[in-house]
Amino acid sequence: MKIGVIDTDAQLNHDFFKDKKIEVRRIRPGIKIISEENYPFTHAEYVCAAILAENPLAEIILYNIIGNENQKNGILMADSINALVDEGVGIINISLGIEELYSDYFYKICEEAKSKGVLLVAAHSNENYVAYPASFDNVIGVDNNFGKEVNKFFRYDTKNNNISFAFDSMVSYYQLNQKYLMGGNSFLAARITGMLSVYYEEIRNSTVLEYIKKVEKNRVNSIPDFVDYKNNYVICMSNRPKDLLQRRFAKECFLCSDIVVFNEVESFLHTKSKISLENGTFLIDIDNYGYYTNNKKELDRIIINTGILFRKIYTRYPIYSIEERMSLQKEYGLLIEQPYL
C-alpha cells in the first residue's frame, strides 16, 4: 500500500523508522524540528509515525514542499498531488492548507486524483480558518471541533465529507518513546490516513464512506469513562511494577494496588475469585515501546487469554492500532479501551 505525504523534510533517524519503507522527494530541503527539548522531530516525521502506527506495512512517498522558510505554495502542492498520483499511491495525506479564496483549478486537481481511485485526506487549519484542500468536498477533511459530551473520539459528517475529533484531542507518540502528547489536526489526519490504508483495496471509492461510518459506530471509537474502572477489582500488568510513579498512577486513577510483570499475571490471578475478575478491569501499563515489541508475541497471548476473564480491558498507552483493536473485538470479543489514538 503506497501512501503519499505532502509535508516538511525528514531525517528518519529514530529506530522506529529503520524497518519502514519511506522515500523522500526533497523539493524544498531543510530540517526543522518542532522543539529540541520536548518534540525533537520534524513535522513530517510525526505525520509519518502516526500513519505507520496504524499501518506499519505502508510504503510512504514523502514530498517535502515546505523548507525552513515555512512558506506554502498552492501550485507546488497541486503539482505534488499530480506527481504522487503518477507514482501510483492509493492515499495522499496533506498536512498543510492554503488559506486563500476557493480555487477551481485546485479543486479539479483533487477531483482528477479521486477519479483515479486516490483518496485525499487533509488537515483543516488549527486556527479554524477556511483552508484548502481540506474544505473541498472531494477531500476527507480532519479537524477537532466537536464537544466531548458525545463520548466519541471522532464523528463523520457525510454531507461535508469531514471527520471531526473531540475538542482538544491528542495523539500519543509512544512509538517514538516520547512522553509528551501532541495536539493538532495534522497528526489526527495522519492517524485517519493510516487507518484507511489498512483496508484501502476493500474501501476505495464508493465504500470508503461506509467504512468510516462503521468505525465511528464501533465501540473502539468510544472515549473511556475512568469512573467506571474504580468500582471493582483492577489488576495492572506493568514493565515497572515497583516504580513509585507507576504505583501512584494505578492507585489514584484505578484504586489498584496489584501490579505485576507480564510473566507473573496468569499465576497471580489464580489467587483471585472468578467473580472479582468478571466484574473487574485488566489494566495494561507498559510505557516502553521497545519492551512491548520485544515481548509482543507473549504479551499478546497473555492479553488475549487474561482479557477474556475481565469485564474491561484498558491500556494506558496505544499499543494497538484501531484495526488491531477491531480484530481483537471481532475474533475474541475483547474491547481494548485506551485514552488516545
TrEMBL record:
Residues 2-208 form the Peptidase S8/S53 domain. GO terms for molecular function: serine-type endopeptidase activity. One of its GO terms (biological process) is proteolysis. Belongs to the peptidase S8 family. PANTHER family: CELL WALL-ASSOCIATED PROTEASE (PTHR43399:SF4), SUBTILISIN-RELATED (PTHR43399). This is Peptidase S8/S53 domain-containing protein. It comes from Anaerocolumna cellulosilytica.
